[in-house]
Amino acid sequence: MTVDELIEKIKKSTQHNYLYHFTDEANFPSISAKGLLSKERMRAEGWWPPLATGGNALSHDLDTHRGIDPYVSLCLTRSHRMKFLAQKDGRLPNPRYLGIHPEVLKIEGARIAFGVANANGVEILPVIEAVKKLDAEVLYDRTNWSDPAVQQRLQAAEKLEVLVPNCVPIELIAGVF
C-alpha cells in the first residue's frame, strides 16, 4: 500500500474518515490560533496549555528522552487508551477528539509508531515505510469484531501513533468529535 492509497482508504472508510488528536476543550482557543503544536515548539515559544494536557510529567519526560516531543501525536481511531487514562486521572476534564484530514500523512518527516511512541522498543518508521506494515484492514474495513483474533488486531492498531513534526496546520483540522 502507498501513502496515497492509505489516504484514499481512510476517506472512503465507513469506520474512520480522519486521524485524530485528543485534547481538552480548554485548549481550543490556542489550537484555533496556532494549529496543533508539538511540545517542543510550545516550550520554545514560551507557553504551555494552562489547564489540560493529555500526558503526565512522566510521559512528557519520556517524550523528550525518546525524541518524540518535536512531534504532534495523532491516533488512528477515537479509542486511544491514553485519552481514557488522561480523563480518568483528571488531566482532561472535557476531552474531545479533533478530526485531522488524512493528507497530514504527506507532511515531510511524518512517522508512524507501532505502539505508544515513547515506550521502549516501539518501532517508529517514516510513513512511506510504515504503510506497508500497517493493518489498514482492521482499521478501515468492516471486519468481524466479535472474532477474538480480530479484536486483538484492533487493540494493537488502536495503540499506533502518527507523529507529525512541529505542527498540524489549522487547515488540516476537520472538526471536533
Summed up:
The chain has 177 residues and is of the alpha+beta class. The chain has helices spanning 3-12, 28-34, 39-44, 57-66, 81-88, 127-130, 136-140, 148-158, and strands spanning 19-24, 36-37, 71-74, 95-100, 111-113, 124-126, 161-165, 167-168, 173-176.
Topology record:
Layout: H1 3-12, E1 19-24, H2 28-34, E2 36-37, H3 39-44, H4 57-66, E3 71-74, H5 81-88, E4 95-100, E5 111-113, E6 124-126, H6 127-130, H7 136-140, H8 148-158, E7 161-165, E8 167-168, E9 173-176
Antiparallel strand pairs: 1-4, 2-8, 3-7, 4-9, 5-6, 5-7
List key phrases describing it.
177 residues; single chain; 8 helices; 4-stranded antiparallel sheet
Explain this structure to me?
The structure is a single chain. By secondary structure, this protein is an alpha+beta fold. It has eight helices and nine strands. 31% of the residues are buried. The model has no long low-confidence stretch (mean pLDDT 90).
The tally of helices reads 8
Shape: globular
Write the element-wise H/E pattern from the N-terminal end onward.
Answer: HEHEHHEHEEEHHHEEE
Strand runs, count: 9
Spatial separation of the terminal alpha carbons: 28 Å
- Cα-atom radius of gyration: 15 Å
Q: What do the pLDDT scores average to? A: 90
- Give the spatial strand order of the biggest sheet: 3-7-5-6
Structural class: alpha+beta
Amount of helix? 25-40%
Content of β-strand:
15-25%
Instruction: Flag low-confidence runs.
Output: none
Largest sheet: 4 strands, antiparallel
